[in-house]
Write a structure and sequence with these properties.
This protein is α/β, with parallel strands linked by helices and 336 residues long. 34% of the residues lie in helices and 25% in strands. The chain has two domains: 120 residues, NAD(P)-binding Rossmann-like Domain (Rossmann fold, 3-Layer(aba) Sandwich); 177 residues, 2-Layer Sandwich (Dihydrodipicolinate Reductase, domain 2), CATH 3.30.360. The protein has ten helices and 15 strands. The structure holds nicotinamide-adenine-dinucleotide (NAD).
Length: 336
């Protein structure tokens, strides 16, 4: 299959590096409104000048492609999704998928009516440690869940007065952490534990260099258990290892703790660690290679994408509900 990129900014490098690892797909052309970024990325990945475009419409008119990888911000998604759908191209579209629930629903409808496939680039669930954890949860090792704690800490926004930020648009986003990163973490939550039926959130801005939220706690309820999602880009608790992800799952038989570096512990009733695993190859690139592989294999087989546009509506519902809950100090019942 041959594909094109919309967006050749900061994160397109990760996508292109992962596409190189796919045997049955290749990026052959690119489009960005910014010519400098377009040419720079094209040179880096060997895309010839005659396949570069600054007009999204022109690229679709001239290129014979099967798929489009959209790596632009959420404001631009509706127009690009519409263009690609009208041209009958299947799409992979970066998160956050949409600026609102209504825009997300509109795009899902457009793709459906055009008969094209649309998957949201939710790579987090494809991290090897979370795939490994999903295997444990789906096995008969784990008992009934009583409690979950999902922690994501990073020391980032208080340092945003620096000029070298790779994603400077973060500074002006009115919805920041829960929207930009919460989409990943809510998606992971749904992947591992299914659909919650209520949530309560407290979100906060800590850093003086941003306008949106960079700290949040969300209490998430299911029928038989509840959990906490703790998110921060302003936490100095781990200055030696600034980025940290941890998941704790307590069940009636055992507890599981898993860390971002792939270290997994299973603790039995006596409080002893009975399983200990360390995933060596645990990188963002791995998550992208697996995500693209899933996209391609579902296109081939006709199987539903795990994170189709329609599926992502449920993730976005959690994201926007967290903002609503925090603003009104109210529990939100789901689905709305
Ligand atoms: N999944 C992840 O782990 C992950 C990581 C980083 C960024 N992202 C997401 O990827 C998206 C892009 O992030 P980025 O850091 O690369 O942004 P960026 O600003 O560096 O790049 C975006 C590019 O899109 C181009 N663009 C905007 N509108 C366009 C249009 N209509 N047609 C063609 N090009 C257009 C811009 O000129 C820019 O070069 C964001 O939504 C971000 O949240 C996801």
């Amino acid at each position: 299959m041959e594909g094109s990129h919309y967006g050749t900014g900061y994160f397109s490098e990760m996508h292109l590096t992962a596409w190189r690892e796919q045997k049955n797909a290749k990026v052959v052309s690119m489009c960005d409104l910014n010519y400098e970024k377009l040419v720079g990325r094209a040179r880096q990945f060997g895309i010839p000048e005659q396949h570069l475009y600054t007009s999204p419409e022109e690229m679709l008119e001239k290129e014979q492609i099967d798929i489009i990888d959209i790596i632009t911000g959420p404001e631009s998604h509706p127009s690009l999704v519409k263009l690609a759908a009208n041209a009958k191209k299947h799409m992979l579209c970066q998160k956050p998928f949409a600026v609102s629930q209504e825009k997300a629903e509109e795009m899902v409808g457009i793709a459906k009516n055009a008969g094209v496939r649309l998957m949201v680039t939710e790579n987090w669930r494809w991290y090897p440690h979370l795939q490994y954890l999903k295997g444990i949860i789906d096995s008969d090792i784990v008992g009934n869940i009583n409690f979950v704690k999902y922690l994501n800490n990073f020391y980032f926004t208080p340092l945003m007065n620096s000029k070298d930020i790779k994603q400077p648009y973060f500074k002006n986003m009115p919805k920041l952490l829960t929207y930009e990163m919460g989409t990943h973490w809510f998606d992971v939550w749904r992947f591992l534990f299914g659909e919650p039926n209520r949530l309560y959130a407290e979100l906060k801005k800590v850093s003086p260099y941003i306008v949106g939220d960079d700290l949040g706690t969300v209490l998430i309820g299911h029928d038989d258990f509840h959990g906490i999602m703790e998110m921060s880009w302003a936490s100095r608790r781990n200055l030696t290892t600034p980025k940290q992800e941890q998941l704790l799952i307590e069940t009636d038989r055992n507890s599981i703790i898993i860390y971002e570096n792939g270290l997994t512990k299973l603790i039995d009733q006596r409080g002893e660690t009975i399983l200990y695993n360390q995933i060596i190859k645990n990188s963002k690139l791995e998550s992208f290679i697996s995500l693209q592989r899933h996209f391609l294999s579902c296109l081939e087989s006709g199987e539903e994408f795990q994170t189709s546009g329609a599926d992502n509506l449920k993730t976005l519902r959690l994201v926007f509900s967290a903002y609503e809950s925090s603003a009104n100090k109210e529990v939100i019942r789901l689905p709305l």
